[in-house]
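Cont'd.
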Amino acid sequence: MPGWLEVDDVELLKLAKDGEADAFGELYERYAQIVFRYVYAHLRERFDAEDLTEEVFLRAWRSLSNYREQGVPFQAFLFKIAHNALIDFYRRSGRSGGHMPIEEQSFPDLLPETGEVALINMEHREIRKTLDQLRDDYRTVLVLRFLSGLSPEETSEVMGRTPGAIRILQHRALSALRNLLEL
Amino acid sequence: MVSEILQTQDELARVLQLCLEVIESGQETVDSLLSRYPELWDTLRPPLEAAAWLYNRTHLLNPRPGFVDASRQRLVYHLYYERAGPLVIPWFEQQHFFCRHIGGRKIVIQPSLGFTLLILLFIFNFNPALTIKPPIPAGLLTQ
C-alpha cells in the first residue's frame, strides 16, 4: 500500500470512518508501536501486550463513529482506549489494579531464553519494578511522556489535565523516580 | 536572576520541559546542559538524570521485529471480515479452548476449528465406504 504514506492522519481517519479498512491499517502502522510501549510498560508478558495492542485498535475501529476530530486528537483517543483496555485486562486476570506483587511477576517462562532475550526481559522487569513503586499518575505521565513519546499537550489530553499541570506532574514524577534509582 | 525565575514551581517545570526538549532534539546531553548552567545543577540534575534513565530504556519496550507488519495484516483482514458480516456464531469468535505459547509463537485453536475437526473425525470413522467388508476374501483366491 505505497499510496498511504503521503496521506495525513485526518484523511486516513475520514476514510476509516467510511469503512476503509486499509486506511485504518495505515493508522495502525503509525501508532501501534507507541500504544504497545504504553501497554507493555504495564504488563509482564510481551504476548499479552501484543494481544492488547491489537484489541485497542479493534476497539478504536468499532468506536470510530463516536470520534470527532474537533474533540481529542486521535492519539489521545487511542490512549484512552488503551487505558480502559488495561483496566479490563486486569479485571479479566482477577487483579484489582496495575500493581502486581513483584514475587508474582518472576515465575519462569515455559521455554529457556536466549542470552539476549533474557537480558531484555530482565531489564523490562527492572523498569516495571521501578515504575510500579510510583504513584499511578506519576507512572502514567512518565510512560506517556518518555516511553510512548507524547508531548505535554498530548499527554494532557489523555490524562484530562492542563499542559501546565502535566509539566508540574512530570517534574514531580521524575524527581520521585530519581529517588528510587541507584545511579 | 535565574534563581528568581525559578521561584514558582510552574516556572521550574517549564524550564525542565525546555531542557528536556533540547535533550530530545539531540542538541545537548544532560551533562553538557548542566555544565553550561551550573546554577541549575542542584535543581535540574535529579529529574534530568531520571529522564535520561527512561530514554535509555525505551528500546526495551519496542515490539518484536515484524510484529507491527504481521498484526497490521491480521487486523485489516479482520476488519474486512467484520465489515462483510460473515455468518459466525459469536461464541465461536470470542472463545478458544487451546492457547499456548510454543517456541515464541502463540498457538490458538478456536472452537470453530475444533468443531470442524470433530465432525471430520466423526465422518471419517463412520464412513460406510471404509466399513464395507471385501466381497471376496483375498485368502480364498490365493489358496
